[in-house]
Amino acid sequence: MSVKGGQGDRQVSAESVDSSSATILHVDMDAFFASVELLDRPELRGKPVIIAGESGRSVVTSATYEARAFGVRSAMPVSQAKRLCPAAVIIPPHGAKYAHYSRRVMSIFRDVTPLVEPLSIDEAFLDVAGARRLLGSPGIIARGLRERVLAETGLTCSVGAASTKFVAKLASTRSKPDGLLIIPAEDTLGFLHPLPVGALWGVGKATAESLGKRGMRTVGDLAATPRDVLQKWVGVAAGGRLYDLAWGRDPRSVDPESVEKSVGHENTFATDVSDPVLLRRELLDQSERVAVRLRAAGHVSRTIALKLRFADFTTITRSRTLSEPTSVARRIYEQAVELLEEQDLVGRRIRLIGVRAEQLAPAGGDSLSLWSEDDGWREAEQVMDAAVERFGRGAIRPATLLGKQTRDLPGHTIRPDA
DNA sequence: TCTGGGGTCCTAGGACCC
DNA sequence: TCTGGGGTCCTAGGACCC
């Protein structure tokens, strides 16, 4: 038997289901951004609230369950959400605040087990197999976790417990909001097979449609179809994975140290842009932010990609691999501009521009960063620019910059990058 | 209805090398 | 002359997820 609870799970005794095989937890914060905002705006509790940017082109990033009752969904254009729910209160997002609460809840998770794999800002997998001896069954651990998160942050979360990652994730989704759902190993197929194919990880609109045309409606339908047939339909990798998932097989373990593979920034203009000066200005800003994040992570990048979305929403990417990896804003910017100038943009209006650094590798350690109390991390070239401006070109050599000259740039510390 | 911004993974073709 | 096979890298696009 499975236990499902909202407030209900506190009324079901932990012993009513044997959770001992369900050692993977998926914890997912409920309407995370909106819930965080409500902590500061308690008068809005019980009302439809939407988190969305203020540009006319914004989409919903988070919505309270009261707003969802009107059909509001995340990724929906704000204009549409307003039509569905004119009474909704719209709050612009405050990323730093969400990051703060994210760190707090992740740290609670790490109190339970070091085997925490964050999936996004508001969800994580936990492997609690090793914590059972100390803390009790996964069911007991999950209840304790939910209580602690609520007591220490005022936020509710939902937890799925199962013997594999993807079943745990499905379980948390189906227990939302403020719930707990435990799927013991022996109940896995009974839980899985009635679900619609779209519930599976990796099955979105396009795949669900393509499978639907072939009569596949439920996960059970997939399980009853030979693996090689599925692979013919949706590709070798996706088909094989679909078949395994339909039989409850998911070999992925909880990995607490996954590494980032790319870093990028993109921006949709409030109105479409044709002016190359504006495009380059945006690229420069994005390149600097990308470079700062690369260095903060101790990474260099070998491939720079430019992304353009035109007024008609067609989107292209152009990328180039550098001869030398870099984390320097100027190099990233120059490469992005070069890619931009290779495009025929005559008479084209651009809706979005973005730059991404790919093929990341650990930095060699021969670049410098400057820490400023005002600006945060900046890069060696800017340190040089500032120093040259102040002392004249002849007075500055990189060797003297390292550590020695910081007293001449008050409020700054110079360090080699990790 | 008119579509954000942050990502990951997969496919497929061509280049290139042995 | 009328055409191998495997491996790896590069590039572009698209599906998908939160």
Question: Could you characterize the architecture of this molecule?
Answer:
This protein is of the alpha+beta class and 418 residues long. It folds into three domains: 192 residues, Reverse transcriptase/Diguanylate cyclase domain (Alpha-Beta Plaits, 2-Layer Sandwich), CATH 3.30.70.270; 53 residues, DNA polymerase, domain 1 (Orthogonal Bundle); 140 residues, DNA polymerase, Y-family, little finger domain (Dna Ligase, domain 1, 2-Layer Sandwich), CATH 3.30.1490. The protein is 38% helix and 24% strand. The strands form four sheets. Strands 1-9-8-2-7-6 form a six-stranded mixed β-sheet. A four-stranded antiparallel β-sheet has the order 10-13-11-12, covered by helices on one side. The chain has a three-stranded mixed β-sheet with strand order 4-3-5. A hairpin with a 2-residue loop joins β6 and β7. The termini are far apart. The structure holds a DNA duplex (18 and 18 nucleotides).
CATH topology of the largest domain: Alpha-Beta Plaits
Note the gap between the termini. Answer: 51 Å
CATH class of the largest domain: Alpha Beta
Task: Give the overall pLDDT as a whole number.
Answer: 88
Rg for CA atoms? 25 Å
What's the β-strand tally?
A: 16
* Sheet with most strands: 6 strands, mixed
